[in-house]
Amino acid sequence: MTAERKTNQGERIDKGDREARGTTRILTLKNSGRTSDEAAAPAVSGLDERAEQLAQVLERHRGERHLVVLQDFPDPDSISAAYAHQLIAAQFEIDVDLTYSGRISHQENIALVRLLNLDLIPYDVDRMDLQTYDGAVFVDSQGTTTSVRAGLEEAGVPAIIVVDHHERQEGVTSEFLDLRKVGATATIYTDYIQYGLLTLEAGRREHVLLATALMHGIMTDTRSLLHARPEDFMAAAFLSQFHDAGLLSEILSQRRSKPVMDTVQRALANRVIAESYSIAGIGYIRAEHRDAIPQAADFLLSEENVHTAIVYGIVMGRRDGMSHEESLVGSLRTSKLTIDPDQFIKEVFGRSAAGNYFGGGKREAGGFEVPIDFLAGTGDEAYSDLKWQVFDQQIKQRLLAKIGAQKK
Ligand SMILES: [Mn+2]
User: Fold this and answer.
1) How far is the CA of 174 from the centre of ligand 1 (A)?
2) What structural domains does the chain harbor?
3) What letter does residue 288 receive in the DSSP assignment?
4) What is the Å distance from ligand 1's center to 4 Cα?
5) Cα of 393 to ligand 1 centre, how many Å?
6) How far is the CA of 197 from the centre of ligand 1 (A)?
7) Span from the CA of 395 to the centroid of ligand 1 (angstroms)
8) pLDDT digit string, tens, across residues 331-375
9) How far, CA to CA in Å, does 253 sit from each of 36, 242, 333, 366?
10) Is the pTM of this model over 0.90?
């Protein structure tokens, strides 16, 4: 950022800066790519205004310490967006830590975190002093898919910034909210960068890595651009000037691990196909292999005459002493345009007693998680089998009723 910006705190973007940017922002969408449903988005209209607003918010919080919270099971989109946020916030002398609860289990994601040399702090309620943070930032989620939010609320840390591309969730309040119906959160951050919140230099390693990561985020969330919107293509075009294609293909070529292969195999064996839906319960799976569930759903979707795949299993979490953590976790993938995963999952699974939905989604993917609570853990094999059968039947019944099919 310019020295002028630092000394002139009220005047965040000086005029010369704005004009200079005007001449270099060749690829930024202004009005051309906006669709009618985007105009109805809750954030203020106009891409430039949103970037400018973000800059104003960051300026107001100059010199503070923020905690960026990724969704519980960070994917390339959330990882790259968090990294972009860290570099942008640094322009405003905001010190940013990155945290997540849950796990990073997909080989590709582990590779990405290593490559970026990212210090992602696993959330630990006993070890982290949340009160040392002045504010929280949620990227690629609105806080509803992360268990860190409750801790932050308890510690009195306000939510300052929320940047996301999922459907709007209830009960989210923050100083700045940017929700856009685009393919990836990485697309939104690329837009901020194009607007000038960070000047990328092709000669700087961290900038090349950032561009590579953002490209990866856009590609995974849009299924290699197959479901990309104009905004995503524009962002990818911009990033292509800086990203390292060789590095990207290296990240993408991470092999599937044996647990993933085993899970795919179980999903294949157990699948029930009804009305072009492929539904598979995979039984129990350890928390560190949880990411095998969406990968199995991806795989089932590749079968001919299947337009939607749903894979679920009971994820077994930490076992400290007598307490066992278990929850029923599922993933949905669809290639059918008329199916809205968010709506589909909310209709099938409904809400908890506390009023929260058990899941949701975006354009062609969704997920759900139902806590098992009282029924979790212990018991012998027969008990575990019985428990699985109950949940398996319940899920199948609900899904088949929704689809309007009889089990074959
Ligand atoms: Mn995303």
Assistant:
1) 19
2) 3-252 (3.90.1640.10), 258-403 (3.10.310.30)
3) G
4) 35
5) 31
6) 21
7) 26
8) 999 988 888 999 999 999 888 888 888 888 877 888 988 888 778
9) 37, 21, 21, 24
10) no
